[in-house]
Specification:
The structure is a single chain. It is built from 20 helices and 15 strands. The chain has 489 residues and is an alpha+beta fold. Strands 1, 2, 3, 4 and 7 form a five-stranded antiparallel β-sheet that branches. A four-stranded mixed β-sheet has the order 12-14-13-15, with helices on both faces. It has a three-stranded antiparallel β-sheet with strand order 6-5-10, with no helix packed on it. α5 packs antiparallel against α6 and α15 crosses α16.
């Protein structure tokens, strides 16, 4: 079948959208629907997320159907798609690596919610899904289960065709499960270019179809407005800024007006910090911004500077990097399988300024570093027992390996740097071989064994049981909770 239009937008090795248009083999009499017959393919890092295998047509890179509903959807959601970062509801952050995990984890609401709260929760979750799930683009098209969301200066593209099979029998998508990140400006540019070019081509070829003319006009005018900085932070935080922090509000409006580029809204210094936490009061917003501006009066020791190796984390398994980096650091420092020193004292002796300060309970810690200085604020009132117990080791992980100057870690942080830093912290405190030495070959461990690990490495019960479960020393969550209950009784 010949197509009268075919074009690729972007680079398949980074991010690309390909669109083709042809003659509808099964017209239904609706001019806008029939004339938009064609195919669309989505590429990221050399992987074709729309590639499918079917019993009818073999292998195909494109999803072929009437594309007008998909075009409408991209025009409706485009600004939020590439700019909205926070999830609308919290999930257990240690089990959420990307948007697909978040959707799966939050499928069942908390049992503690009232009927009204559950309805509100369902509406917020559904609204977020409507604006970020490719399958929401068209209910009558067999699309892969792909989610797109903003992450800092990047866009995360995740897909899960294992948990959620193709919506058409006899068809399966080749790319089953994965996550990649690409610069958000790239995604915004190629999406906008595709929408403008495709709608213009349809309008030029079918000038008698009013909807195509309207879609072409909408695509040309599609851009972020002055208020669209709000998608970069949590909705409650944006409301506080709009209502109570007028000076900050005006700065963000000015930043968006002068820095936006089509669909794309770059982060301001403030939103890069605030995106990490769901802040509901002026005090919480201002205290976090103040913590992010801390300054160490002394340069770090040369010894510590030599250990810093900033690198962007893996999007798929960042915790593995964290484990490996912790063991490498132990070897470099000569700690072997011995307990780590008091890390707050150790960092202070290497001229890292570390302070405790009460922040929002959703924030665990804030780190800031320059080429030669590093500071940290640790919240003693954090909501997570696990993260509290590994807090200072997590600070060290962010300082050594983050490639961004400021890190905020907490209950709402779903960024790979956080997963890497937390895994680093747990392994730095409890190295596998050291744990094996303590357990001395024990296969089915109990609370007394875990208590010996805690005593050996000076660790708390929540982080210890969680780490031992993750490393296979405790078989599952049920057994972990049994042991934990005995330890904290």
């Amino acid at each position: 079948m010949s197509d009268w239009y075919a074009r690729q937008f972007g680079d398949r090795e980074r991010f690309a959208i390909s669109v083709s248009l042809g003659r509808d083999p099964h017209p239904i009499g609706d001019a806008a629907v029939d004339s938009s017959w064609g195919g669309i393919s989505l590429w990221i890092r050399g992987r074709c997320l729309t590639r499918s295998v079917s019993t009818e047509g073999g292998v195909c890179d494109e999803v072929r159907w009437n594309l007008v509903s998909i075009i409408r959807w991209f025009l409706d959601v485009g600004v939020r798609l590439v700019n909205e970062e926070p999830f609308p509801e919290a999930a257990t952050s240690d089990s959420v690596r990307d948007a697909c995990d978040w959707i799966n984890t939050t499928e069942t609401p908390l049992v503690t919610l009232s009927a009204a709260e559950e309805d509100e929760w369902f509406l917020r979750r559904s609204d977020w899904r409507q604006h970020h799930s490719l399958r929401r683009a068209a209910v009558d098209v067999a699309l892969p289960n792909v989610f797109v969301r903003r992450l800092g200066d990047f866009v995360e593209v995740s897909w899960d065709n294992e948990t959620w099979a193709a919506p058409k029998s006899g068809l399966s998508f080749v790319e089953q499960r994965g996550t990649e990140i690409v610069p958000s400006s790239t995604v915004a540019l190629q999406l906008s270019s595709a929408l403008v070019d495709v709608t213009r081509a349809l309008a030029d070829r079918h000038p008698d179809v009013p909807e195509f003319v309207q879609l072409a006009s909408a695509a040309t005018e599609l851009r972020a407005d002055d208020e669209d900085w709000r998608w970069l932070v949590h909705a409650p935080t944006a409301r506080v800024i709009c209502a109570e922090l007028r000076e900050l509000y005006e700065r963000l409006i000015h930043h968006t007006r002068t820095q936006r580029d089509g669909l794309y809204v770059p982060h301001a210094p403030e939103t890069l910090v605030l995106r990490h936490a769901r802040l509901v009061s002026t005090r919480e917003v201002t205290s976090l911004l103040e913590a992010s501006k801390m300054y160490s009066p002394r340069p770090m020791s040369e010894h510590l500077c030599r250990l810093i190796q900033p690198a962007h984390p893996s999007a798929s398994r960042p915790w593995v990097e964290g484990y490996e980096k912790a063991l490498d650091l132990r070897e470099a420092l000569g700690w072997g399988n011995e307990p780590a020193p008091d890390l707050r004292v150790w960092m202070s002796s290497n001229h890292v300024s570390v302070k405790e300060k009460e922040l929002s309970t959703t924030v665990d810690l804030v780190t800031r570093k320059t080429a030669d200085r590093a500071s940290a604020v640790v919240n003693p009132q954090t909501s997570s027992n696990i993260r509290r117990e590994i807090g200072y080791a997590t600070v060290l992980g962010h300082i050594l390996f983050d490639d961004a100057p400021v890190a905020v870690d907490g209950a709402w942080e779903h960024w790979p740097t956080a997963a890497r830093a937390r895994a680093f912290a747990a392994m730095l405190l409890m190295p596998d071989d050291g744990v094996r030495d303590v357990l001395a070959g024990r296969q089915a461990i109990d609370a007394s064994d875990v208590r010996r690990v805690m005593q050996r490495f000076n660790t708390g019960p929540y982080a210890t049981t969680y780490h031992l479960k993750n490393r296979g020393f405790i078989p599952d969550d049920e057994r972990r909770m049994d042991i934990l209950r005995e330890l904290v009784a």
